[in-house]
Amino acid sequence: MTLSQTQHPDPAHDHDHCVHTALTTAAHLCTARGVQLTPIRHQVLELIWESHKAVKAYELLDRIKPLKAAAKPATIYRALDFLISQGLIHRVESLNAFIGCRCSGRSHEQLLLICKHCQQVEERTPEIMLKALAKELQSAQFVAHSKAIEIHGICKQCADKA
Amino acid sequence: MTLSQTQHPDPAHDHDHCVHTALTTAAHLCTARGVQLTPIRHQVLELIWESHKAVKAYELLDRIKPLKAAAKPATIYRALDFLISQGLIHRVESLNAFIGCRCSGRSHEQLLLICKHCQQVEERTPEIMLKALAKELQSAQFVAHSKAIEIHGICKQCADKA
DNA sequence: TAAAAAGATGTTATGTTATAACATTAGCCT
DNA sequence: AGGCTAATGTTATAACATAACATCTTTTTA
């Protein structure tokens, strides 16, 4: 059991690779699960993966309109609900926004590090902390269904620049 | 360093005591800090402390109207902003709602256990977990400004009843 | 293969949460 | 009195999200 490794936001990383991995993994998972990654859902997922910044539902709506002029809020929210239910994206509660999930289909307890400066969100799965949390919940006799652990602050890259 | 003790929601607890403690502590803290716990702010704080359930801004608005017919959304949100800035309440990000803070003026990293059944929110300060989190943040070289750790599930009391 | 069921999307309307912007008031300091 | 700051009043609107019902498409099954 170790501390999780830094995954983002590295300004030099190959983002096309992130996107490609996310989309192909999503496609495989949906096939394996017998659920449909329809064109709308795929487009929304792709838009979310355009960057590592959390993106708002109405931003997605604006950005999908060139492709789908008839898109309405429900169009987006339904796609988001699906993607969340499949663990392909996360909702960032403290921002009312959404980010792509880097570990779809696995684990699903994550720490989100949200940079106030660059808006990028880093997802981590810090095992030691999560074990301690599990223990705390056990001691409280609280049965957890979902967990939101969201830290706002300044990421290393932005701190270095300043 | 130990696991934090259960504080709530205990159906048999003396809630008048909670309220009294919260309000007198708030008054003292504000005096000490040279900030004003005005009538509006006091009323909002009192309304929030009516229970251990998270309460929505517009619920507060409805409930304050008998006392203050002219109350508007801004009336409430400004009071909430003040109370949050003084650490007297917490915003529950995942509910868009607010709860009274049990440890005003102290610490301020807290775990919120949110019961889906009774809606009550328990605030804990689990030292082991928070140390592990601090270590994780350090390893990520992320400078935290604020932390939201919110767990949704079923509390002991509701689990026992079922 | 036709009918039924389930899943996805279209469409309209509305509900909910939150803030901006500017005016007014109250208390305090000089 | 004049000027400052903090708080509140007031109007309007922005931002976020869902309900409800219609339609279409795919799969199931009688």
Label this structure with key terms.
homodimer, 162 residues, alpha+beta, Arc Repressor Mutant, subunit A, 3-stranded mixed sheet, two-stranded antiparallel sheet, 6 helices, 5 strands, 18% strand, globular, disordered N terminus, DNA-binding
Written account of the structure:
Two copies of one chain form a homodimer. Helix content of chain A is 43%, strand content 18%. With 162 residues, chain A is an alpha+beta fold. The first copy, chain A, has a single domain (15-161), classed as Orthogonal Bundle (Arc Repressor Mutant, subunit A), CATH 1.10.10. In chain A, the strands form two sheets. In chain A, strands 4-3-5 form a three-stranded mixed sheet. In chain A, α2 (39-48) packs across α4 (73-85) and α3 (57-64) crosses α4. The longest helix of chain A has 19 residues, at 15-33. The model of chain A is unreliable at 1-6 (pLDDT under 50). Chains A and B meet through β3, α5 and β5 of A and β3, α5 and β5 of B. Chain B binds a DNA duplex (30 and 30 nucleotides) through residues 36, 38, 40-41, 56-58, 70, 72-75, 77-78, 82, 96.
